[in-house]
Design goal:
The structure is a homodimer of 82-residue chains. Chain A is built from 5 helices and no strands. The first copy, chain A, is an all-alpha fold and 82 residues long. Chain A has one domain: Cytochrome Bc1 Complex, Chain D, domain 2, CATH 1.10.760.10. Chains A and B meet through helix 3 of A and helix 3 of B.
């Protein structure tokens, strides 16, 4: 996966998940240092409807498989933080 | 919430999510230092069927609301780690 491309693609995600991957509110998960495969599986689930969330479903809609791998690799690469 | 009670209740969770809240496999999320409310919302979703997962659905089944708050407080209290 391409972490740099993931970082670019994740610019929009930062508005809720934080620039450093720490959620901006108590109900928004921290993504920094999370497991790469787990993150990718959740984005796939949101995109393909296996997991539903009002904010995430539209966010994941247009993502390609490559986008998903890059975004997951980007957040997994960040130091774990809360 | 009672972190100590949460720790006791979460002993079984440790077999997959790790004693220190770091998932034992790439598809198992780290819970250490995650947002408390987010964690509680996910346990509620797994218990009440809004979110489905083969491993988590049976795990969340018997939890009371108090168990859920305590477990969420316990994992949120751990230092973020990967």
């Amino acid at each position: 996966a391409d972490i740099e491309k993931g970082k670019q693609k994740a610019l929009i995600c930062g508005s809720c998940h934080g620039k450093d991957g720490v959620g901006i509110a108590e109900n928004i998960p921290n993504l920094a240092g999370q497991k790469e495969t787990y993150l990718a599986l959740q984005l796939l689930a949101f995109r393909d409807g296996f997991r539903k969330n009002m904010q995430m479903t539209p966010m994941a809609k247009g993502l390609t498989d490559e986008d998903i791998q890059n975004i997951a690799a980007f957040y997994a690469s960040l130091p774990a933080k809360k």
